[in-house]
Structures
1.
Amino acid sequence: MSYNAFSVSPGRPARPVESPPGAWRTLPIDGRFDLVYEDANGAWSNRSLAARELKLGPGRTLLGGIDARRGGYRGFRVDRIRRLTDGATGERIETGILDRLLARAEAQRRADALRIRRQTHAHRRATRPGAAATQTM
């Protein structure tokens, strides 16, 4: 079984699952970012990324997504990101990048959970016995 921070059992609400020690946790994150990235050799480059996930693992965190420069999925070590620019707001972040990414992932998780709760509530109201009779009157 793969462990994921948002594993869901059918018919049960989403709750984080305890990951085994040393395992990676994956947090969904959505957004477009421009990065100034320093590779393992110390060379800096500019990258454009359509972010998909944050991977939190033992000793490192990766920001994963589609790298426009390479045209495929790529993971960037967050500790090597020197500047992150949010494509939606233009905000430039040079310190506390990991904290900002974690806060964004959490905010998106909460917004998704609220949206799902509202959709479920609306669906239950619509499929409740007698709901069709009251809607046609």
2.
Amino acid sequence: MEVSTNKLLLKRPVNVKAIVTPRWKEEAQQQLQLQLNQLDQQLQQLEIQGQRAINEIQKQSIQPPGPQVMQQIESIQSQVNQRKSELLDQKNQLLQQLQQVQVLELNQEVNQGTIESVFTIEPGENLIQKMQVEILLRDGMVEEIRGEI
């Protein structure tokens, strides 16, 4: 038997899918709720920090405040509003994801992301088939590996 040394080591993306189970749904909802709570905290901190900065400028300036002071205050308020808008967009996306998770049917397969895998290829093998690999999880456990390993 002849041993071929004509092999190449490559990386490939491997799709990771999960089967929707009651446990998966619960964990996904908890994770999204945790992220929502963190965003709410960031929004509160943003409001407090913005107000503190404005109060500090007002304390240090003469009364009534001049145009330069008013411009500083407006600039801070504008920055706060822009960041607030970004956080609210993120919050809306999370709320949509939470709604999507709630309506998923049990035993449905959902994408969880991708990981990388290393594989060997040699002359005569089908590269396209070797690139099409995915892992199916059920509650974190590998249920199936699909494709050519």
3.
Amino acid sequence: MGANAVEALEERWRSILSVHARTMCEIDRVLHPHGLGASDFEVLDVLASAPPGEGGQCRVQNLVGRVHLSQSALSRLIGRLERDGLVVRTVCAEDRRGVWVALTGKGRDLHTEVLPLQRAALARMLGG
């Protein structure tokens, strides 16, 4: 790969990071009055779309790849959401090491309330 191609690739990567950072900041800004940040919303959003057949719950392990946080950061975030009454954690009956997370009624209501704000922020920032 030539020097110009490498420079173009690096510039493209920096542009993606910049759009991501600006978009996350905007989502944080619009959700802050509701006590949420962008990562909090992502967890609620993934749980809100969990298949009904699974009781609207998701394994913590499966959330890691979907919300792009480390296992420890995600555990702390889920702990905070649980303290706020937005999610509930349960241990998997078949596999005692597995932990499930589900939205509470309060969490589902808050997700429904802030979803249009998050989607509008995405539209503003990403031109959708």
